[in-house]
What we know:
2 domains; single chain; alpha/beta; D-Maltodextrin-Binding Protein, domain 2; disordered N terminus; five-stranded mixed beta sheet; six-stranded mixed beta sheet
Amino acid sequence: MNIFKATAAVAVLVAGTLPGATFAETLKVSTFVPPKHAFNRMLTAWGEELAEKSGGELTIDLFPAGQLGPPPRQYDLAATGAADVAVHLTATTPGRFPMAELAALPLSYPSAGSDSATSSQRLTELAGDYLAAENPGTKILWMAVTPPLKINVKTDGLSMLSDLEGLRIRYAGKVFQAMIEDLGASPMPVSPSQVSESLSKGVIDGATFPYEALMAFDLGDALSHSIEPGMASAVFSVVMNEAKFNALSAEHQQLIIDTTGPARANAYGAMWDAGEKHGKEYILSKGVEIVTLEGGELDKLTAIVEPIIANTIKAVEDSGKPGQAFFDAYTQ
């Protein structure tokens, strides 16, 4: 071998073993939401930021729409390393993330506001102290709390809560299941991607979604009414395989830390809030009527959700977790 080539080869080998050596890395990122969903837009923007700040050494490869697995498997994709990063909706695995699910309780938001930017940032700020233990094998990059989900239905007429009685409504998580039952309707466990078909076939009469998701799943033509205020939120986590994170160079680890966390949660929430505004314009353009609960109807809703809140927090406390402390910190 040419002595100069040999020397260069040894130099590369030695450099690769030096502390702090940085190698090109591509992170496999999984989501189950449609390609146009806000999550995929934000993750794409995050990937572009990583690439720019790393000089092209750290990039992402995004797999949307459940290409790597259905909604309930997203967390395990990251925990097992089948994906490096995944977006998980806690409602798809009921009871597995009881602390995080407290942020999805009805009419329960940070005192600073119920918008997604505020809620997502606050939940991410609390994640290290309260949520890490129920996310083994992963590192929480940020949490995301949707704008409050509305009950959206197709029906001949809807003006009060009693009009929901007897309807079959797709729900997300135990909280909405309890609410729907208390409203006299039947909760139906339908995955987000199957809602359109289920509505068209008459399997369900409605679904719980924020406006942004109605637009993302193109459900405007299948619905007639939406109820305000939004009754509860859904909670997502963006998690990274812990072993993968630890295997990265110190520079890449710090870059991920610097580009995620509460600031990224706020930025994503702001994007979601903007999407919610556009989503509302979208459903109105489709002729969907928005029914706003006021006075006695709003009091009726509050009376329905109060025991759900109390019982859910108690169940978490009874399991030995600091449910009340977390809820108070989140809503303060």
